[in-house]
Fold 3-hydroxybutyryl-CoA dehydrogenase.
Amino acid sequence: MSRDIRRVGVVGGGQMGAGIAEVCARAGLDTVVCEVDAVAARDRVAASLDRAVERGKLTRAAARDALDRMVFSGSLEDLADRQLVVEAVVENADAKTEIFTALDKIVEAPDAVLASNTSSLPVELSAPTPWDR
């Protein structure tokens, strides 16, 4: 895959998901965060950006720009046009399977990347990959 990724989605707005989304937005990427409590996710990212400004690691304008590049939603359907979606929810195999099953139906681009931030669960592919061809 040689194309540039410009549209990122993150499923989960907890500590890890919010951090992934913040890094993407600070890098200039159009970022959608999908979280049941979208307001709490936005508040988490805004607080992190504020801390970065207070520590002199980010200008106020850059923090505002990063937050402006983010959309916070409670609906997975808002991830349909994403080129990369990173799952960052609770370490529960059933929850992750349910999310990936939904994303497989929702994300439109056939070459979109669906990734997991899991640290303790095995990741298995059940569909053919480009490497299987």
About this structure: The longest strand covers residues 7-11. The beta strands are 7-11, 30-34, 70-73, 84-87, 113-116. The chain has one domain: 13-119. The longest helix spans residues 38-54.
